[in-house]
């Protein structure tokens, strides 16, 4: 990700914070603080792709103890409607979902942050090694070097598994990134989460394959 993109993300958060600070008693509702941020590789040809794989669980935390890695997953009753909303949006843009055991053009990975100041590049590097053991390999850790996200953010990363074949140095190559800030703080408000997912795709018409 280019520096200007990282700075743009930080600027959005900063401006939002200033806006909320101008309110006499802060925001009236927690959803007033929802921010959906998206970015993408401007030269990436999404129209040349048509299939994607997506896991059926959402990682929310990674714990490493003496070299042993443990993954914490979102409860299925919350994860399933989130995954379903993502799939519906991808389908509406012309994408076909295939199983993780098949060869897909793209890999879409949803994740939730459980703590503030969680370094995304470190977290995803560990997740990749365990969540898809030996499948895509270590060439594709899908991270962006953004320093931190707010507690309860939903992160969607669409990455091209063939990127390392043409650019093995840039192993973190991802075509699209979405961050919905803080919406997973309260899992019971699924409508807020699905609205944010819809907004992320509304902001990303370039993902359409047809």
UniProtKB/TrEMBL annotation:
Signal sequence coordinates: 1-21
Glycosyltransferase recorded as keyword: no
A Pfam family that the UniProt record links to this protein: DUF4136
Residue ranges annotated for the DUF4136 domain, each copy included: 36-206
InterPro entries, alphabetized: DUF4136 (IPR025411)
Superkingdom, taxonomy of origin: Bacteria
Gene3D superfamilies the UniProt entry points to: 3.30.160.670
Keywords, ordered alphabetically: Signal
Annotated protein name in UniProt: DUF4136 domain-containing protein
Species in which this protein is naturally found: Echinicola strongylocentroti
């Amino acid at each position: 990700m280019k520096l200007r993109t990282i700075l743009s993300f930080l600027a959005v958060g900063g401006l939002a914070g200033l806006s909320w600070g101008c309110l006499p008693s802060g925001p009236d509702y927690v959803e007033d603080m929802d921010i959906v941020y998206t970015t993408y590789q401007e030269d990436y040809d999404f129209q040349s792709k048509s299939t994607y794989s997506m896991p059926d669980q959402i990682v929310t935390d990674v714990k490493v103890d003496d070299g042993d890695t443990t993954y914490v997953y979102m409860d299925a009753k919350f994860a399933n409607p989130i995954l379903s909303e993502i799939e519906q949006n991808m389908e509406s843009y012309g994408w076909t979902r295939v199983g993780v055991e098949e060869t897909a053009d793209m890999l879409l990975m949803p994740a939730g942050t459980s703590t503030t100041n969680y370094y995304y590049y470190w977290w995803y590097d560990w997740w990749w090694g365990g969540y898809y053991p030996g499948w895509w390999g270590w060439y594709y850790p899908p991270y962006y070097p953004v320093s931190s996200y707010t507690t309860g953010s939903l992160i969607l990363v669409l990455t091209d598994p063939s990127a390392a074949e043409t650019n093995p140095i840039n192993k973190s190559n991802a075509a699209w990134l979405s961050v919905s800030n803080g919406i997973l703080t309260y899992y019971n408000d699924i409508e807020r989460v699905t609205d944010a997912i819809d907004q992320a795709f509304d902001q990303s018409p370039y993902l359409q394959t047809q």
